[in-house]
UniProtKB/TrEMBL annotation:
<keyword id="KW-0539">Nucleus</keyword>
<keyword id="KW-0753">Steroid metabolism</keyword>
<keyword id="KW-0256">Endoplasmic reticulum</keyword>
<comment type="similarity">
    <text>Belongs to the ERG4/ERG24 family.</text>
</comment>
<dbReference type="Pfam" id="PF01222">
    <property type="entry name" value="ERG4_ERG24"/>
</dbReference>
<keyword id="KW-0812">Transmembrane</keyword>
<keyword id="KW-0238">DNA-binding</keyword>
<dbReference type="GO" id="GO:0006695">
    <property type="term" value="P:cholesterol biosynthetic process"/>
</dbReference>
<keyword id="KW-0675">Receptor</keyword>
<feature type="domain" description="Tudor">
    <location>
        <begin position="4"/>
        <end position="62"/>
    </location>
</feature>
<keyword id="KW-0153">Cholesterol metabolism</keyword>
<keyword id="KW-0472">Membrane</keyword>
<feature type="transmembrane region" description="Helical">
    <location>
        <begin position="481"/>
        <end position="500"/>
    </location>
</feature>
<keyword id="KW-0444">Lipid biosynthesis</keyword>
<dbReference type="GO" id="GO:0005637">
    <property type="term" value="C:nuclear inner membrane"/>
</dbReference>
<feature type="transmembrane region" description="Helical">
    <location>
        <begin position="212"/>
        <end position="230"/>
    </location>
</feature>
<feature type="transmembrane region" description="Helical">
    <location>
        <begin position="294"/>
        <end position="313"/>
    </location>
</feature>
């Protein structure tokens, strides 16, 4: 194994990928497996560079001085060879003037080269973070930055044409011309700003407690689901009243497993239907963009039609309530089998298709987080399909089954007001997610996390069987609420939904088109990645306003269950813990990605989720 050349903390000169430009960087770490140095630029950007792209400061300066000192000797030797070969040379005075003319052209070419080198830097760093004179606390608009780059490029076009003509009639050797052509092609590639291919590195920072934590989570998550469902079945679902463990044979039913598989296949068929628009996701590490068909809302409509037909033919939908535990176990077994398949196929996946967060080299951790980022069977994206379809739509069907079970068990002609509120609030949430399906393509689940046990179990088991806990609880523990209380809870849910939807819409619209005139009133902090960080609107209020709206809605879903037991409030308690943890992950990734710009954003927006609290 070759030894490393540069130590951590050493200040060196690093080549910007895809260019011939070197910048002062600091070595932060070294990957012994991939043999890559992680370096940090002055603007806070962190990149992984090969050792061949890094030079010490002393050698870099020595190379520059050596180049300048050798230039006169080459010119003098060229003139001496030219005198010995030329049969008819002009007078000495004319030779001197011609030499001066050539030197003048060389100086002009050098000036043009410097100008052309300045162009790619401005194109890549349009919202430059290092230029503190331009940044005065109020960021410039993206439209203005784009226009300035276009004007500069137009001004430099005539100079570039002059440069090509001068090179065509140059008297320098062909070897030097070949080197200049290679340098010019590199600069031309850099001006185009082609996607930079990142070499995947091993995951160094392990989340969820590392190998031991993820190993325990694989058993803890199914046990939690089992515990919650058993508690809801009890007459006294208090925390101190631990439910008796059922017989293992009672937890499994082949018919329930068959219905779950049929449900999964039905949603897969709806996913493959050629309806809905096709959009591109965010660029991958190799610059490629995957295509996704947006038809989740159509799948929901078709599912509603199928359920309506079943009810018309008097299919007992409350069968779900009677065998709810068996369905949960069937979903858990299916998700485990799917996770094993995903990990086995990821072992043959190319390096560039592995997840940045699930490539640690440890079996337990990669199995839980997900080793492959976007596992696909042809055009069928397994992670994207499971993210919204079987679990989210299944959540609505389960709620409906609980509503019908409540009416049958308690001999009601209409559902209780509490059950109607829970079903209505959660139906709105699911329909909103499916209507705005395209927004999920920018979430951490799609862009960063691989598809492993965490997402497979979460999408297929946790979402449909834990998020429906309030409706399941109300069947066995009916709660009566008055109309004024119901109105107050409805207002609370509407406030949470308004914050959630308007914040997400504001973010998504800004990502699609920052120069939209409708967003002219929004101010943002520019970053080295070309994206902007909003500091006005909802995103200037707290850093994650969509999480705030989510938590308010979660509270509104639990309030119809009353205050007799804490069990119905498990969802809101869990959701606060989940979003606080996810916010911490977002903070860490954004600090690495945006560097100093993120620090400025945190100074402008000090509160994370809860204003004046957290």
């Amino acid at each position: 194994m070759p030894s490393r050349k540069f130590a951590d903390g050493e200040v060196v000169m690093g080549r910007w990928p895809g260019s011939v430009l070197y910048y002062e960087v600091q070595v932060t770490s070294y990957d012994d497996v991939a043999h890559l140095y992680t370096v940090k630029y002055k603007d806070g950007t962190e990149l992984a560079l090969k050792e061949s792209d890094i030079r010490s400061q002393s050698s870099f300066k020595h190379r520059k001085s050596q180049s300048s000192s050798s230039s006169p000797s080459r010119r003098s030797s060229s003139r001496s060879r030219s005198r010995s070969r030329s049969p008819g040379r002009p007078a000495r005075g004319r030779r001197r003037s011609a030499s001066q003319s050539r030197e003048h052209k060389e100086d002009k070419k050098k000036t043009i080269q410097e100008a052309s080198l300045a162009l790619p830097v401005l194109v890549l760093f349009k919202p430059s973070e290092n230029n503190t004179k331009r940044y005065n606390g109020e960021p410039e608009s993206t439209e203005k930055n784009d226009t300035s780059c276009i004007v500069l490029e137009q001004k430099l076009k005539p100079d570039l044409e002059v440069k090509r003509v001068l090179e065509q009639y140059s008297l320098r050797s062909r070897k030097d011309d070949k080197k200049k052509e290679e340098i010019y092609s590199e600069k031309k590639t850099f001006v185009a700003v082609k996607p930079i291919e990142k070499v995947p590195t091993k995951t160094k920072e392990l989340e969820f407690g590392g190998r031991i934590g993820t190993f325990m989570m694989i058993f803890f998550l199914p046990a939690t689901v089992l515990y919650l469902l058993l508690m809801c079945k009890q007459d006294d679902p208090s925390l101190l009243n631990f439910p008796p463990l059922p017989a293992l044979e009672s937890l499994w039913e082949g018919k329930a497993f068959g219905i779950f598989v049929l449900w999964f296949v039905l949603q897969a068929v709806f996913y493959l239907l050629p309806i809905g628009k096709v959009v591109e996701g965010l660029p991958l590490s190799n610059g490629r963009r995957l295509q996704y068909r947006i038809n989740g809302f159509y799948a929901f409509i078709l599912t509603a039609a199928v359920v309506g037909v079943l009810l018309y033919f008097e299919f007992e939908l409350h069968y779900l309530y009677d065998h709810f535990m068996q369905f949960a176990v069937s979903a858990a077994v299916f998700s485990l089998a799917l996770s094993v398949y995903l990990y086995v196929r990821s072992l043959k996946a190319p390096e560039e298709e592995l997840a940045p967060g699930g490539n640690s080299g440890y079996f337990t951790y990669d199995f839980f987080i997900g080793h492959e980022l976007n596992p696909r069977i042809g055009s069928f994206d397994l992670k994207y399909f499971c993210e919204l379809r079987p679990g989210l739509i299944g959540w609505v069907v389960i709620n409906l089954a609980m509503l019908l079970a409540e009416m049958k068990i308690h001999n009601l002609s209409v559902p209780s007001l509490s059950m109607i509120l829970v079903n209505s609030f959660q139906l709105l949430y699911v329909v909103d997610a499916l209507w705005n399906e395209e927004a999920v393509l920018t979430t951490m689940d799609i862009t960063h996390d691989g598809f492993g046990f965490m997402l497979a179990f979460g999408d297929l088991v946790w979402v449909p069987f834990v998020y429906s806990l309030q409706a399941f609880y109300l069947v066995g523990h009916p709660t009566t609420i008055t109309w004024p209380v119901a109105a107050a809870i409805t207002v609370l849910n509407c406030v949470g939904y308004y914050i959630f939807r308007s914040a997400n819409s504001q973010k998504n619209n800004f990502r699609r088109n920052p120069a939209d005139p409708k967003l002219a009133n929004l101010k943002f902090i520019p970053t080295a990645t070309g994206k902007g960080l909003l500091v006005t609107g909802w995103w200037g209020f707290v850093r994650h306003p969509n999480y705030l709206g989510d938590i308010i809605m979660a509270l509104a879903w639990s309030l119809p269950c009353g205050f007799t037991h804490i069990l119905p409030y498990f969802y809101v308690i869990y959701f606060i813990c989940l979003l606080v943890h996810r916010e911490a992950r977002d903070e860490h990734h954004c600090k690495q990605k945006y560097g100093l710009a993120w620090e400025r954003y945190c100074q402008r927006v000090p509160y994370r989720i809860f204003p004046y609290i957290y």
